[in-house]
Amino acid sequence: MKILIADDSRVMRQIVTRTLRQAGYDGHDLIEAEDGAQLVEKANSDKFDLVLSDWNMPNMTGIEALRALRAGGNQTPFGFVTSEGTPEMRDTAAAGGALFLIAKPFTAEMFKEQLDSILG
Fold first, then answer.
1. Residues 76, 62: Cα–Cα separation, whole Å
2. pLDDT tens across the length of the chain (120 residues)
3. Which of 6, 34, 68, 99 counts the highest number of beta carbons within 10 A?
């Protein structure tokens, strides 16, 4: 399976990658994007099984990227991995079409709980 990880922090992309492996999702093809604009470009030019995105990124935020994908008809499963998880953000994410929002600090168990139904 192919997973797109979008975060403007290279270290955070590495932490997400490590957490995916700790959750048992080793062996998946992990592709990185440095911001929301790259996320949209990559998600529209290639087929992914899942997008994991930060909320706050330069050029285009995660929620703007999600809205752009959905407006263009891209229905790739999408979840946020971000530093904040207020009820308002969760509502906004769900209204935009996100399947989940995992707030930092996160654990491998939190990933597994959200991703098992998507990645099997």
1. 14
2. 999 999 999 999 999 999 999 999 988 999 999 999 999 999 999 999 999 999 999 999 999 999 999 999 999 999 999 998 999 999 999 999 999 999 989 999 999 999 999 987
3. 6
Domain extent at residue 70: 2-117
CATH of the domain at 101: 3.40.50.2300
* The amino acid at 100: F
Q: How many CA atoms lie within 13 A of 102 on its CB side?
A: 20
Instruction: Give the separation between CA 17 and CA 11, rounded to whole angstroms.
Output: 10
* Structural domains counted in the chain: 1
Residue spans of alpha helices (H) in 34-97: 36-45, 62-71, 87-96
